[in-house]
């Protein structure tokens, strides 16, 4: 295809669409709220609807856009670069959502350890070669051991993950 020129919109690539579809299906296409623009990116968040002391979030980082803070969009409407599941001690002003986690295909796709460094381990997936994942240590801790293998669902449910599309 490159012999005919460059693709204008990389979001149309089937490999990228498959990654967007994977996470949209896993989280049941929640509504996210734009919380801020920072470092050339627009941050969108949705809070898990749980009765817990900590607050769990789905956070999306997309290329910076001109949408006003407080705007809401479904996950499938945002062309993101980073998707995070995180736990914070503070509450963010954003939409709530709920979903049912699943360890079934395709969410059972294997993640393989690539690198361990300080408080972070990096993983890749053979099923999704354009997706990398970082698992973060709990606050104030360094990992003493990293699992060599994991799954996409297992990583998401730690609420200490950052997924990046590398296309």
What do you see in this structure?
- This protein has 167 residues and is mainly β.
- It has 2 domains: 29-97, no CATH class; 110-161, no CATH class.
- It has 2 helices and 11 strands, in the order H-E-E-E-E-E-E-E-E-E-E-H-E.
- The chain has helices at residues 14-26, 152-156; strands at residues 31-38, 41-48, 55-63, 72-74, 82-88, 95-97, 110-117, 120-124, 131-136, 149-151, 160-165.
- Strands 1, 2, 3, 4, 5, 6, 7, 8, 9, 10 and 11 form an 11-stranded mixed sheet that branches.
- The protein is globular and about 40 Å long.
- It starts with 13 loop residues before the first helix and ends with a strand.
Q: Could you give a quick summary of the protein structure above?
A:
It contains 2 helices and 11 strands, in the order αββββββββββαβ. With 167 residues, it is mainly beta.
Keywords:
single chain, 167 residues, mainly beta, eleven-stranded mixed sheet
The major β-sheet equals: 11 strands, mixed
Enumerate how many helices there are, as a single number. 2
What percent of the residues sit in helical stretches (DSSP H or I)?
10-25%
Assembly annotation: single chain
How many DSSP-defined strands? 11
What is the structural class? mainly beta
What order do the helices and strands follow?
HEEEEEEEEEEHE
Mean of residue pLDDT values: 90
């Amino acid at each position: 295809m490159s012999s005919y020129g460059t693709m204008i919109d990389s979001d149309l690539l089937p490999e990228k669409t498959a990654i967007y579809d994977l996470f949209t299906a896993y989280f049941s296409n929640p509504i996210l709220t734009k919380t801020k623009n920072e470092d050339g990116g627009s941050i969108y968040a949705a809070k898990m609807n749980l009765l817990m002391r900590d607050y769990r979030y789905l956070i999306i980082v997309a290329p910076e856009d001109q949408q006003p803070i407080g705007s809401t969009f479904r996950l499938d409407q945002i062309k993101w670069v980073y998707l995070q599941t995180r736990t914070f001690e503070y509450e963010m002003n954003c939409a709530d959502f709920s979903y049912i986690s699943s360890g079934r295909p395709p969410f059972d796709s294997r993640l393989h350890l690539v690198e361990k460094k300080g408080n972070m381990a990096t993983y890749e997936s053979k099923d999704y070669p354009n997706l990398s994942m970082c698992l973060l240590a709990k606050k104030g801790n360094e990992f003493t051991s990293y699992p060599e293998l994991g799954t996409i669902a297992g990583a998401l449910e730690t609420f200490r993950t950052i997924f990046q599309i590398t296309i």
